Amino acid sequence: MRDGAAGFVPAAIRQLLRQYPRVSVHVVTADPVTLTERELRQRNIELAIAPTPGLNLGSGSDVEILFDDRQVVMAGAQSKLLRRRMRLADLIHEPWILPPPDSIIGFSIAEALRASGLEPPRAQVASFSIPLCQCLLASGHFLIMLPVSMARLGNHLPFKILQVGFAGIPRPTGILTLKNRTLSPIAQRFINCAREVAKPLAKGHQWSTRPRR
Description:
Blueprint: H1 8-19, H2 32-40, E1 48-51, E2 61-76, E3 96-98, H3 104-115, E4 123-126, H4 130-137, E5 143-147, H5 148-153, E6 159-161, E7 169-178, H6 185-202
Parallel strand pairs: 3-4, 3-5
Antiparallel strand pairs: 1-7, 2-5, 2-6, 2-7
């Protein structure tokens, strides 16, 4: 899994373990390209859950879109910016945590900002690591773009959506498997749990970026 699935996958695992408490789950974390082009194709994993835009899936893969996610601007729960009204243009010179610029999502963020008439901010920290991002956001001094699903499913996580007049970047997230590969019973049960968790997320065509009270 990667950032697009970082809030969703734990919820699916919790549901699986409630039904099958003796099951062990092995999770590989990587960027979507590594998950699909190396881990999945080399059969190191049975399935991948990841954002699908920009992936070169080829004819050997099956994709089932679970829900339409959206990458939006977030800040730590202690950030002073949460108490202000501002536009995205006001935040360009703040400290940002961003994915590497040569990654799919890094490129998408830069494109979306330029389409809004803004130059992408300089990343004070460039990383895919969600735990690192969580630690830095907790300080209240950084901004980041993360999937809306993380805010919806990760109520315990220390960040909140900023209302800055930015609709976000579409990141449809799905299950990826290899064609002509029979999945284990546990993998199939996990997929069933993932579908159940995705149902409320899949309602409607767009996320509301209004944070929950």
